[in-house]
């Protein structure tokens, strides 16, 4: 393990770091002046963990990262200057966790992300410049958690999301999402759904999500569909049997009219 955490004046790593071929864990947390990683980083073929948390000056990753085929965890949280990920990211087929929270300059995810066949958790909280997710995300058959909360530029999800049959946690709260694809009804493993502060325009098929246990709503959640006479439909959704945890974040969910089960636990309600 090589720990260089909080080396705030470190602007570059020596090219010779590539000689550490047996290195398994590289910690660069809060190296806030680090501008880039050397191409030789790709020689660290034994690396299983790369932590670049709060490397605020890092704007890109080298293409040679494709050689880190044993990498299981890649932490890029709060890399606020990072605008893109290399297409070669898809070579990291052992990657299980990819954390991109607060990467506010990130403009896109590469299509190759669909090749991350072992990925279990993808965190994109507050990636405010991210406008879309690639269709290839539906190929992430092992993904259990997808978090796109506070991705204000994200207006919809790709229809391919319905292919993610192991997805158990989906957090959309505070995102710009207004429409959900019909394929969300195919998320047969979904247990937790967060839609607080989302302006949804369509009815949620909660009754088809047989394993759903937890629902987080509140804020600006509403249904904006209008009936033929011009009056807005006041019903947002029905809460079906099976949901045991229910959290309302504000007093603005006045349109909820019907709760079907007596087994709901209301957290935070007065």
From TrEMBL:
Gene3D superfamilies from the UniProt entry: Ribonuclease Inhibitor
Sorted UniProt keywords: Repeat
Residue ranges occupied by any Disease resistance R13L4/SHOC-2-like LRR domain in the UniProt entry: 9-102
Domain of life: Eukaryota
The protein, known as: Disease resistance R13L4/SHOC-2-like LRR domain-containing protein
Organism of origin: Nymphaea colorata (pocket water lily)
């Amino acid at each position: 393990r090589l720990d260089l955490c909080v080396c705030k004046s470190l602007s570059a790593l020596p090219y010779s770091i590539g000689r550490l071929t047996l290195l398994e864990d590289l910690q660069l947390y809060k190296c806030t002046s680090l501008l880039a990683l050397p191409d030789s980083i790709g020689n660290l073929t034994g690396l299983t963990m790369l932590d670049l948390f709060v490397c605020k000056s890092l704007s890109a990753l080298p293409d040679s990262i494709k050689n880190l085929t044993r990498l299981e965890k890649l932490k890029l949280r709060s890399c606020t200057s990072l605008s893109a990920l290399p297409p070669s990211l898809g070579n990291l087929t052992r990657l299980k966790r990819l954390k991109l929270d607060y990467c506010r300059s990130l403009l896109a995810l590469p299509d190759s992300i669909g090749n991350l066949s072992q990925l279990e958790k993808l965190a994109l909280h507050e990636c405010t410049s991210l406008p879309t997710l690639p269709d290839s995300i539906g190929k992430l058959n092992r993904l259990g958690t997808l978090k796109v909360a506070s991705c204000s530029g994200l207006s919809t999800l790709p229809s391919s999301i319905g292919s993610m049959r192991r997805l158990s946690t989906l957090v959309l709260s505070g995102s710009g999402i207004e429409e959900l694809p019909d394929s969300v009804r195919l998320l047969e493993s979904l247990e937790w759904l967060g839609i607080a502060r989302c302006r949804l325009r369509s009815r949620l098929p909660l009754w088809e999500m047989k394993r759903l246990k937890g629902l987080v709503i509140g804020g600006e959640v509403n249904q904006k569909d209008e009936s033929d006479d011009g009056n807005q439909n006041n019903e947002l959704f029905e809460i079906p049997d099976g949901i045991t945890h229910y959290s309302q974040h504000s007093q603005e969910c006045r349109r909820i009219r019907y709760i079907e089960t007596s087994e709901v636990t209301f957290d935070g309600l007065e």
